[in-house]
Amino acid sequence: MSAPAPLDRAKGIVPALPTPYAADGAPDLRVLAALTRDLLDAGVDGFYVGGSTGDGIMQTHDERVACIAAVAAECGGQVPVIAHVGTPDTASTIRLAQAAADAGASAVSAIAPPIPLERAELLGYFTTVADAAPVPFIPYYFPKRSGVEFDLAFLAEMVAPASVAGVKFTSLDLYTLNRLTRLRGGSLIVWNGHDEVLLGGLVAGAAGAIGSTFGVAPGLYTELLRAYRAGDLSTARALQDRVTDLVAALVGVGVMPGLRELLRLSGYAMGEPRPPHRGLGAPQREQVADLWRALRA
C-alpha cells in the first residue's frame, strides 16, 4: 500500500463520493474505484469517503472500511483520502478511525452524533476522537444535518487539540466561516461544504471545498478554483452561476437521487440506493436527463 498523501494537498476540490451498490445491496467497490480513477484524471485534489453523500452512517463498520480502502488503493498516495468515521458513540468512532488509517486514509472526520447532547458532551466527543485518532482529525460542521449550531467559542474549543487539522464547514454562514479560518493563527484548513456558495466560501477564506456535486462536473469546479486563484473574478462568478443552477436543478428532484442518476447516465452502475433512501420516478429521471445533456453541452 502506498503512503497516504499529505493532507495539505487537499487544499482544493475534494469530491464527497457516493457509494455505488451491487445487485445484492453491498457496496460495489469496482464501480467506486472506477469513479475515483476518473475523478483523479479530471484533476481533483482529494476525496471525502463515507460522509452523508456516501451513506456512511447507514453502512456497517466493515462496509465503511472497504469503501475507504478501495478509494485509497485507487489513489495510490496521489491525493489525500479523508474518511468520515462518525458514529453515534465515541468508542465505535475511534475504532473506525483506527481502521480507516490502517486502510490508507490521510485524515479522518466526524459529524456531531445524531442524538441530543449537552455542550460539554458534544465537545467531549470531538476532542476525545481528535486525541485518539491516529491521523489528523477534521470535525464536520453541518448544522442542517446534525441539528446543532456551534458558536465561535465552541468552535475555538473544538479545534484546540493539535491533532485537529481543519474543519469541513457545511453552512451558509460565511461570516462564521471567515472567523473560523482565523482561529489558531490561521493554521486550520477550512473546506467550504455547500457547493452553491463555493466562490463565497473561497473569498471568506476557505482553502478549498468538499462537495457532493463535484463528482458529476469536476471540470466546472476545478476551473472555478483556477479562475479564483488567478484573480479572474468575472470568470469565477460566471462559473459559480452555473454551479448555482446545477444545485437548484438537483434540489428540484432530490439532490442525492439526482446525483446518482447523473452518474448512472455518465456510465457508472450506481445500483439501487440504500433504503430508506429512494430512487427517482420517471418524470424526475427525465428532468435529470435534461440536466445531464446540459452539463455535457
Key terms:
DapA-like, 8 strands, alpha/beta, TIM Barrel, lyase
Please explain how this structure is put together.
The protein is of the alpha/beta class and 297 residues long. It has a single domain, classed as Aldolase class I (TIM Barrel), CATH 3.20.20.70. The protein has helices at residues 29-41, 61-75, 90-102, 119-132, 143-146, 152-158, 174-181, 198-204, 218-229, 233-253, 255-265, 282-296; strands at residues 13-15, 47-49, 81-84, 107-111, 137-141, 166-169, 189-192, 208-211. α7 (174-181) links the parallel β6 (166-169) and β7. α10 crosses α11. The longest helix has 21 residues, at 233-253. 48% of the residues are buried.
| Largest beta-sheet details | 8 strands, parallel
Q: What distance separates the N and C termini?
A: 39 Å
Main-sheet strand order equals 1-8-7-6-5-4-3-2
Query: Based on CA inertia axes, which overall geometry fits?
Result: globular
Set down the secondary structure blueprint.
Layout: E1 13-15, H1 29-41, E2 47-49, H2 61-75, E3 81-84, H3 90-102, E4 107-111, H4 119-132, E5 137-141, H5 143-146, H6 152-158, E6 166-169, H7 174-181, E7 189-192, H8 198-204, E8 208-211, H9 218-229, H10 233-253, H11 255-265, H12 282-296
Parallel strand pairs: 1-8, 2-3, 3-4, 4-5, 5-6, 6-7, 7-8
Protein name: N-acetylneuraminate lyase
Binding site for pyruvate: 53, 210
GO biological process, one term: N-acetylneuraminate catabolic process
